[in-house]
Amino acid sequence: xxxxxxxxxxxxxxxxxxxxxxxxxxxxxxxxxxxxxxxxxxxxxxxxxxxxxxxxxxxxxxxxxxxxxxxxxxxxxxxxxxxxxxxxxxxxxxxxxxxxxxxxxxxxxxxxxxxxxxxxxxxxxxxxxxxxxxxxxxxxxxxxxxxxxxxxxxxxxxxxxxxxxxxxxxxxxxxxxxxxxxxxxxxxxxxxxxxxxxxxxxxxxxxxxxxxxxxxxxxxxxxxxxxxxxxxxxxxxxxxxxxxxxxxxxxxxxxxxxxxxxxxxxxxxxxxxxxxxxxxxxxxxxxxxxxxxxxxxxxxxxxxxxxxxxxxxxxxxxxxxxxxxxxxxxxxxxxxxxxxxxxxxxxxxxxxxxxxxxxxxxxxxxxxxxxxxxxxxxxxxxxxxxxxxxxxxxxxxxxxxxxxxxxxxxxxxxxxxxxxxxxxxxxxxxxxxxxxxxxxxxxxxxxxxxxxxxxxxxxxxxxxxxxxxxxxxxxxxxxxxxxxxxxxxxxxxxxxxxxxxxxxxxx
Length: 507
Prior knowledge:
Radius of gyration: 32 Å
Helix content: 40-55%
Mean pLDDT: 87
Strand content: 5-15%
Shape: extended
Distance between the termini: 80 Å
Strand order of the largest sheet: 3-2-1-4-5
Order of helices and strands: HHHHHHEEEHEHEHHHHHHHHH
Structural class: alpha/beta
Number of helices: 17
Largest sheet: 5 strands, mixed
Low-confidence stretches: 50-57
């Protein structure tokens, strides 16, 4: 027998109240199961169909949902692609193979007349040549005076030769091209060192994963001045975005290897000099956010994690901006978890209207002041209606339900969520940071853990170099190779500034 089949009229009021509590708890547990199932097996996209109106009992909710469903939908034109295979890159080197008739076959079998060439048929296929690894041998001839053998000049050495070229890892067998390739393989292509070791063995080269790990650490240590510069540039602009994700780090002091550590991310700097800076920390405590934010003033955009609130209260000159994507995600989950998704979809429709305004205005070529004024003019009425709807729903839904949590989160974060309207360089969400931290998350799935805190720090350094290069439209492999070649010659602060991604190919 189900709870819905029980005749409650025969029970005392306390029993009826208890049964209602059980019903509510069952519905909440069902919602949680649906949400977890969706996260585990469902699509990650948060798109939803506004054209289909769900069955609604409440007339007021029905009217609001109908208005949301009747909004004009932009229909993009569709251009059918031409059939056939896409042409191969014309810049690729081509080796031509000609399959011609033998000379004796170039005469007509009927009359014996020579055949005339009337054209040709061409086909192309891609071929692959395995990696070419070689030994670069450097020879430095030695010279000495055959007469006095340099004994008359005590200030200069008797044997003369060219000094060795400085290298980012002295006395290492790794050339700059190999070193940059190994770092790209791990931190952009997500191939751990133990797999690279096997790949090298296939081409007859023995490079152990421990050697590669040591090279990574030595490179990071050598480039410390550059990382300090990148961190300073990230905090030099008045907009900074932050996020964090878990990491598994072995050998931490006073911690078990099974405990989680964290990789913190800062995305900032001027728009034309964007820096994506990663830093390892053993915990997620607020003190780490405070340390990372020291020296920064301006708008800080994050999710709703409390450590950022603590840091903003502790420091001065920082305006905290929220993330509408996190609010939208909660309403989306509520729309998939409940039997009557209409309220959650109404909440989604308000958020979608704000994003449509943002998209339309961003596509227009207008001055920043005009954009800021126009965005406020169009978005503020939406926010006003949304806030009124949230306050109403907060008194009607169960706080512990998926919709109740979405409403409560949005109301709690409201003052921070609307702050994005204050700057034309701010967007409604913190998706830029989430996208920047994703490469680390993908890599983490492959190499599973860091063997030491030092390894976690140096990994953050490699991610910083590669992702910052990508954000500045610099090919990462080309950047690392050039950086590793030029860095040993840097002796001053100005020399290191020339090695930043937006400067390195201009000097």
